[in-house]
Amino acid sequence: MNEYINLTENNIDEEHICCAIGDPKHQEGVDCKKEWIKNKLKDGHVFRKLNARGKIFIEYEPLETSWVPISGKNYEYIYCLWVAGSFKAKGIGKELLEYAIKDTKKNGKSGICTLASKKKKPFLGEKKFFEHFGFKVVDSIGDYELLALQFEDAETPKFNENARSMKIDNKDFTIYYSNECPYVEYEVKELSDYAKAKNIKLTFVKIDSLEKAKNAPCIFNNWANFYKGEFISNTILNANAFEKLLK
After folding, report:
1. Residue 45, φ and ψ in degrees, nearest 5
2. Which of 17, 74, 108, 223 has its CA 20 to 30 A from that of 174?
3. Taking a C-beta distance cutoff of 8 angstroms, is the pair 82, 56 a contact?
4. pLDDT tens digit string along 140-169?
5. What does the alpha-carbon distance between residue 1 and residue 90 come to, in Å, rounded to a whole number?
C-alpha cells in the first residue's frame, strides 16, 4: 500500500515539495514556495505527496481563495497533479485524485475543478485522465479549458472576464509569475541578468496577492509570457530558451 503525506505547519520545513528535488540552484524558490504554502494552509490548502523521493503530488484548495482568475462558489480547485518518472502507470495518480475528490465531498463542496487544454500543454494535467473520473468542460478560453466534477446541481465555475482576452497593454516582453512554482525565482534572476547584459527590455510582474491573482490578465499565474501585448506561452524560460524565442 502506498504511503502519503499531507504537508502541515509541523512538517513542511522537513519535507520536500517534490518539484525541485536535489537542485541547489532552486533552493530559494523552494523556500519561497514553502512560505507560500504556509500562508495558504489557513485557507484549506492541501499539498499531498507520496512518501518517496520523487515528483508525485496533488495540490488543491477552495476555489474562492485559489490564486487563479476563476470564480465559483463552494468548489475546490486543483493546481497541479503530477506523477513523474518510474512512478507512472502504478495507479498513484488515481489514488491522489480519488483522495482529493473524497476530501472535497467530505468538506461539503459542490464540486472540484482544474485547468486543462484541448491539446497537451506543459504544466497541465491530461484532459482524458480527468474525464475518466467524470470531469466535464464548463468553460474555455481558446485551447484552454476549465474542467469540473460536480457533486450536486450548482452554479458551475468560470474564468473571470479579465482573463479572457489573454492580452496586456505593455508591448515589451512581459512575464507574469508567482511563487506557486519553486522554479521561478531562479529563472527570474537569470533572465533579468541576461536582459540587462543584452540591453533587452524585459518586464516582470509578480502576482503576490489573492486580489492580483483573481484579476490577472491571463489564466496562468505561476508563469505567463507576453510579447507585443499577446499571450504566447506558459513555458518557464531560462536564458537560452528566451534567446531562441526572441530569434
Report:
1. -65, 135
2. 17
3. yes
4. 999 999 999 999 888 899 999 999 999 999
5. 11
